Each structure stands twice: as structure tokens, then as C-alpha cells.
Amino acid sequence: xxxxxxxxxxxxxxxxxxxxxxxxxxxxxxxxxxxxxxxxxxxxxxxxxxxxxxxxxxxxxxxxxxxxxxxxxxxxxxxxxxxxxxxxxxxxxxxxxxxxxx
Length: 102
Prior knowledge:
4-stranded antiparallel β-sheet
């Protein structure tokens, strides 16, 4: 049993009991969250595909933690000049444990 949900402009394939790494969600750890933009739901009875979303389908989860990923270094360089620039970026991610698909 799995579902495809849309959250923060991205699509995620989620299964029951799985912990999914997503874009930052502004909530505290332990907070329940409901995703109502469900694109596909697959169960033992069959597969439902939405146009664009499946009606009356929801995926529930609980926020486990919000962390920052490892630093990514971005280096820009222009040839034949003295232009060099090093920039660091750390993306914030939220981990959500899926508790119910239905």
C-alpha cells in the first residue's frame, strides 16, 4: 500500500510506517500533519489515479524532526579576471513519519 502526495511543490512516494525527508515544514516535532493533495493511492483493492487529485483521499503523518543538511559549497569563477566567489548553503529539511493512508 502506497500513495503519491504533493507537498511543497514536490511529489513524494510514501508508504505506511515510512519516514520521508521533505522540504521544510514550519511546525514543531510531534505535530500531526495531513496531506490532502494525493495524486495516486494503491491498495489491495486496486489503484486510484487522480485528475489531478484523488477525491476524499488523505495521508496523515507526524513530524519527527527538522534538521539542516550538510553544507554545499558553490564556487563561481570567471576566466582571465580576478573574480572568484565561494558560497556555502545548508538546506533545511523535515522528516515526516507516515501514520495513515486513506
